[in-house]
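user: can you give me the structure for this one chain? tokens are fine.
assistant: on it. calling the predictor now.
[tool input]
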Amino acid sequence: MALYVPGSRAEWMAKCRRAEDLGYDVVGVVDHLGRVAPIPALLLAAEATERIRLNTYVLNASFHNPVLLARDVTALDELTGGRLEIGIGAGYVREEFEAAGIDWGTPGRRFGRVADVVAELERAFDGRPRPPLLLGG
């Protein structure tokens, strides 16, 4: 279930608890401008819940430095007790790239950034089990 984060901490935590109480398996947070940043939102969702999986649905590889993102993802996985699922994609909203001052480039270049992030995640987890990985557009 993908949730849009409401305006307050208490509302977001209540929504996550309710999803878990209703039997949902996964809470996903999108990575779009104008929305709350997914990593802090998922950390708070983990604090509010006990078993539900937490998903980045999906991180735009072009918006993140691969080394720093791998650092943040490994920390998030550790701090959530291994409940993380990682979604990484190439991005599809050209206007977001323009608003962020990031080169839109070709599809091949955008998917190359996805490959860079995946490679860095593999290095960061260094043979340890890494969270499930979803590759998106």
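assistant: here you go. The helical segments are 9-21, 38-48, 66-79, 94-100, 107-125. The two ends are 19 Å apart (CA to CA).
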